[in-house]
C-alpha cells in the first residue's frame, strides 16, 4: 500500500473553496429561513379546521418526504425551464432546497404544536384571545422550543444535502470540489478538504442555532436550562 | 325567573357525551355578588356544568345566559363572553415561557388593547391582591403550586371579569397550599365578586357559599343555602357529605 497525499495543488486553489463554502452557507441560510416560515405555515395548515387546507398540506409533506432530493431539484430546474422561466442555478437550488426542507420542517413543527397541552389553549381561550393570538403568543414559541434540536438538525442536514445541487451547476462547495479534482487529478485530497469544510460549516450552523436559541428562548437563558 | 341581577342562569340544560347524559335538565341562577358552589361525585356533571358557562362545552338543549350573553346561541361572540367571564383551572395553566407579569399583561394588551404601562400597573395591583407582588419577574416553574394557582387567579382578575369560575382549583395542592389559595378566593368573595366554583373542600364551601348545588347523575339533586351541607334533605347528599342516614 502506498498512500501518497499531496495537498499543494489543492490548497493553492483555496479562494475557490472559500467561495464554494460561502455559497453553500448562503444556500443553507436562505433555505433555513424560508423553510422555517413554510414549516410554521404548513404546520398551522395541517391543523386547520378547513379539510381542504389540511389535505393540501398533507399532500405537500408526503410528496416531498417520499421522493429523492435530487429528483426534486431536477423537477424544479426543468419545470421552470419548460415554463420558459429563466433563473440562475443558485435561485433554482435555493428554491428546491426550500421546498424540500419546508416539508420536513412542517412535520417537525406540527409535532411541536401537538405537544402543547390542551389546557394552555383553554387558558388562552378563557382570556378571550383570538385563534391567531393564541398561535402567536401561546403556541408558537413553546412548540418550537420543544422541537428545536430536531428542527435545527434538519437544517444542518439540509446544508449537507445541498451538495446535490452541484448537479445543476450551482457553484457550491461540492461543485467546486468536482471542478478542482478534475483540474488537479487530486481527487482524494480534494474530498478530504471538502469534508473538513463541511464539518466546519456544520459547526458554524450549530453555533448560530445555539445563539439564536438564547435570543428567542429567554426563559432558557435566565433559568439556565439546557435546550 | 331571570332578574336583572342574575349573572348566570341555567334553564333545563341538557348535554350528552355520546350515550351518557352528563347534564339532565339542570337549572340554577347566580345573582350578582353571589357565590355558587357546585358539589358532587366525580362524573356527576359538575365540571361540565361549569365549563358550559364559558362555553368550553356546548349544550344540546336548554338555555344558558351569562352576563346578558346567550351562551346557548350558536352565533354568540365567544370572545365578548369570555371577556366577562374569568376561569381558573385545576392545573393552573400558566404560560410557561412567559414571566408572571407577561402572563398577566398578555390578555389585557392583546384583547382589551390597553397600553403596556397601564397593563403593568394592573398586573402589580392584581398580584398584590393575591400576595405575589415579588414574583413579577419569575417564571411559572419557579413558583410553588399554590403560588402558581394564585398567579392564575391574578391573571384572570386582570381582565376585570364580571364573574369568576373556579374548576377544582385546589385539587392538585396539598392542604397548606390549598389554604393560601382558598384565602385569596375568600377575599374576592368578600369584595363582592360573583363566583361559581366546583370544589371538594366541604368546609370551605360551607363558609363561602351563598348557594350550594349538589349534582347527582347529571341532575341537580339538592340545592339551597350552605346549611344543606349540615342538614341535607336527600339521602344522596347526606351520603356525599358523610353524615350518613
Q: Quick one: overall form of chain A?
A: globular
Structural class of chain B: alpha/beta
How can the largest sheet of chain B be summarized?
Answer: 6 strands, mixed
What would CATH call the homologous superfamily of chain B?
P-loop containing nucleotide triphosphate hydrolases
The overall number of domains of chain B is 1
Membrane topology (chain B): Peripheral membrane protein
Protein name (chain B): Amino acid ABC transporter ATP-binding protein
Domain ABC transporter (chain B): 8-242
Subcellular location (chain B): Cell membrane
Fold topology:
The complex is a heterodimer of chains A (227) and B (245).
Chain A: H1 8-12, H2 14-46, H3 51-65, H4 69-82, H5 89-114, H6 118-126, H7 131-161, H8 173-184, H9 187-216, H10 218-223
Helix pairs in contact in A: 2-3, 2-5, 2-7, 2-8, 3-5, 4-5, 5-7, 6-7, 7-9, 8-9
Chain B: E1 6-17, E2 20-31, E3 35-40, H1 46-53, E4 61-66, E5 69-70, H2 78-84, E6 85-88, H3 100-110, H4 116-129, H5 145-157, E7 163-167, H6 175-190, E8 194-198, H7 202-208, E9 211-216, E10 219-224, H8 235-241
Parallel strand pairs in B: 3-8, 3-9, 6-7, 7-8
Antiparallel strand pairs in B: 1-2, 1-4, 4-5, 9-10
Transmembrane segments (chain A): 20-44, 190-217
Domain ABC transmembrane type-1 (chain A): 21-209
InterPro entries (chain A): AA_ABC_transptr_permease_3TM, ArtM/GltK/GlnP/TcyL/YhdX-like, MetI-like, MetI-like_sf
Describe what this molecule looks like in 3D.
Chain A is mostly helical and 227 residues long. Chain A has a single domain, classed as MetI-like fold (Orthogonal Bundle), CATH 1.10.3720.10. Chain A contains 10 helices and no strands. The model of chain B has no long low-confidence stretch (mean pLDDT 94). Chain B starts with 5 loop residues before the first strand and ends with a helix. Chain B is an alpha/beta fold and 245 residues long. Chain B has one domain: P-loop containing nucleotide triphosphate hydrolases (Rossmann fold), CATH 3.40.50. Chain B is globular and about 50 Å long. In chain B, strands 6-7-8-3-9-10 form a 6-stranded mixed beta sheet, with helices on both faces. The longest helix of chain B is centred in the C-terminal third of the chain and has 16 residues, at 175-190. The chains are: A mainly alpha (227), B alpha/beta (245).
Amino acid at each position: 500500500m502506498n498512500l501518497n497525499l499531496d495537498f499543494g495543488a489543492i490548497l493553492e486553489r483555496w479562494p475557490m473553496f472559500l467561495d464554494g463554502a460561502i455559497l453553500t452557507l448562503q444556500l443553507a441560510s436562505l433555505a433555513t429561513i424560508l423553510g422555517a416560515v413554510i414549516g410554521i405555515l404548513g404546520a398551522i395548515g395541517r391543523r386547520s379546521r378547513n379539510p381542504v387546507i389540511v389535505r393540501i398540506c398533507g399532500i405537500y409533506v408526503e410528496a416531498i418526504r417520499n421522493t429523492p432530493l435530487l429528483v426534486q431539484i431536477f423537477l424544479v430546474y426543468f419545470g421552470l425551464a419548460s415554463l420558459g422561466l429563466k433563473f440562475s442555478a443558485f435561485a433554482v437550488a435555493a428554491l428546491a432546497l426550500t421546498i424540500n426542507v419546508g416539508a420536513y420542517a412542517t412535520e417537525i413543527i406540527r409535532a411541536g404544536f401537538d405537544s402543547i397541552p390542551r389546557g394552555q389553549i383553554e387558558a388562552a381561550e378563557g382570556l378571550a384571545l383570538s385563534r391567531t393570538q393564541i398561535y402567536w403568543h401561546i403556541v408558537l414559541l413553546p412548540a418550537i422550543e420543544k422541537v428545536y434540536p430536531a428542527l435545527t438538525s434538519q437544517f444542518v442536514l439540509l446544508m449537507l444535502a445541498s451538495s446535490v445541487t452541484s448537479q445543476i451547476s450551482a457553484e457550491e462547495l461540492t461543485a467546486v470540489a468536482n471542478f478542482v479534482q478534475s483540474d488537479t487529478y487530486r481527487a482524494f485530497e480534494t474530498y478530504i478538504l471538502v469534508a473538513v469544510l463541511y464539518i466546519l460549516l456544520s459547526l458554524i450552523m450549530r453555533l448560530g442555532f445555539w445563539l439564536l436559541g438564547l435570543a428567542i428562548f429567554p426563559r432558557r437563558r435566565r433559568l439556565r436550562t439546557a435546550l | 325567573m331571570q332578574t336583572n341581577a342574575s349573572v348566570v342562569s341555567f334553564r333545563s340544560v341538557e348535554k350528552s357525551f355520546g350515550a351518557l347524559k352528563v347534564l339532565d335538565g339542570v337549572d340554577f341562577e347566580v345573582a350578582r355578588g353571589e357565590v355558587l358552589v357546585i358539589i358532587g361525585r366525580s362524573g356527576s356533571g359538575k365540571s361540565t356544568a361549569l365549563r358550559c358557562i364559558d362555553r368550553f362545552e356546548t349544550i344540546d338543549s336548554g338555555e344558558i345566559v351569562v352576563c346578558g350573553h346567550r351562551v346557548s346561541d350558536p352565533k354568540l361572540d365567544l370572545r365578548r363572553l369570555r371577556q366577562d367571564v374569568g376561569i381558573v383551572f385545576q392545573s393552573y395553566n400558566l404560560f410557561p415561557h412567559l414571566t408572571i407579569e407577561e402572563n398577566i399583561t398578555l390578555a389585557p394588551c392583546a384583547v382589551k388593547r390597553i397600553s403596556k404601562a397601564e397593563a403593568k400597573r394592573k398586573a402589580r395591583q392584581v398580584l398584590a391582591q393575591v400576595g405575589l407582588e415579588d414574583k413579577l419577574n419569575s417564571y411559572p416553574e419557579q413558583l410553588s403550586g399554590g403560588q402558581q394557582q394564585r398567579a392564575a387567579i391574578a391573571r384572570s382578575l386582570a381582565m376585570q371579569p364580571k364573574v369568576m369560575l373556579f374548576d377544582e382549583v385546589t385539587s392538585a395542592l396539598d392542604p397548606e397550599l390549598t389554604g393560601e389559595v382558598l384565602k385569596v378566593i375568600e377575599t374576592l368573595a368578600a369584595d363582592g365578586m360573583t363566583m361559581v366554583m366546583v370544589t371538594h373542600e366541604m368546609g370551605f364551601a360551607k363558609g363561602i357559599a351563598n348557594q350550594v348545588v349538589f349534582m347527582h347523575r347529571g341532575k341537580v339533586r339538592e340545592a339551597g343555602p350552605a346549611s344543606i351541607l349540615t342538614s341535607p334533605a336527600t339521602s344522596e347528599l347526606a351520603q356525599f357529605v358523610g353524615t350518613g342516614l
